[in-house]
Amino acid sequence: MAIDINEGNLKHGVLGLVMALVEVIRDALKIQALKRIDSGILNEEECERLGKALMDLDLALESIKEEQGIAESVRAVRDGLDDIVDTVIDRIVNPERWQEEINVRS
Amino acid sequence: MSTSRGRYIYGVASTGCAVSLGGMGIDGSEVYTIPYDSLCAIVHNCSTEPYQSTDEERVKKWVRTHQGVLDEAKKALGTVIPLGFDTILQSKDEVISPDQVVKDWLKGDHARFQTVMERIKGRDEYGVQIFYDPRVIAKQISEENQEIRKIREEMAAKSPGMAYLYKQKVERAVKAEIEKLAGEWFRDFYRRIKDHCDDIVVEKTKKADRNRVMLLNISCLVVRQKVNNLGEELEKTNNTEGFSVHFSGPWPPYSFVAQPTIATPDVKVESNAT
Fold first, then answer.
1. pTM of the full predicted structure?
2. How deeply is B47 buried, as exposed, middle or buried, from its count of CB atoms within 10 A (0-12, 13-18, 19+)?
3. Which residue among A53, A101, B132, B231 is least crowded, i.e. fewest CB within 10 A of its CB?
């Protein structure tokens, strides 16, 4: 993934990248939170606090994206990451890709 | 090096005549045919340098001209095997003329050209892309799916924080359901389209925009008289709520002709096919 940085889009580029990473961490947190809740080890009040915290986090991230006008660059970084993950998984689960890789290298 | 040592090849037609198609080629070059036996190559004289430019508009114009020549050639000469943009044959030494190189190439691959010609005769390529709108589909699923409805009902009675977590749960469940259904839709659409095509090449799906997810991206080889049937079938899909179809063509059957192989080792093909 090439990140095109010049003075004009430096802010968008870096902020977009940082925000995209924060979103990825947030998504991981959400998955963990839902697991905790389903497991039943949290009481009602703890669940409520967790939900509230995630909601506040989401609202904060959305408003930062809007204020800075970086929603598009965040999306672009995340799409780029998605593509990389897609390619890697495709390589791992499809043995025919291994042969292609060997052919390309030889 | 002379400026006309190369032959830019647009395609191969199934006629053995030498004809001129006029100055319709790239940058106004004279397009003509070099025959060998029952085949001919549609060419113009060029240098051995491939057509390259950083000016996107210029490249687009070249590609459109390439396309235009193939359309005209089809009208004038019948079935044409299209080659990719920037396919240039050249001779490596002064002994063999570039025309001879083209003839040798037609000769060496004669049998394969005949087979491909039979396969694409009277047929055109069409591009079909089917999209779904994740908002519409998500709404349908969250109303119809029992399990998701249950989570939504429980959600109504929860405090704000909990309700937010339930909302995440619903979103995840809907997403998983869409992924499951997408596989079924793909198989269903593919089967229905297959009935109207001689051959299908499945292309990679591309990212559309946030309100349109590309479910299926295929190239179809269709008998000219049967294309209306395919159009009607796709119209049905296009009228289904949450789905839209992009249907394009007729194109030269690029996806159904393998790349040209090289007949003789002293011939070099420059190909920058896009």
1. 0.74
2. middle
3. A101
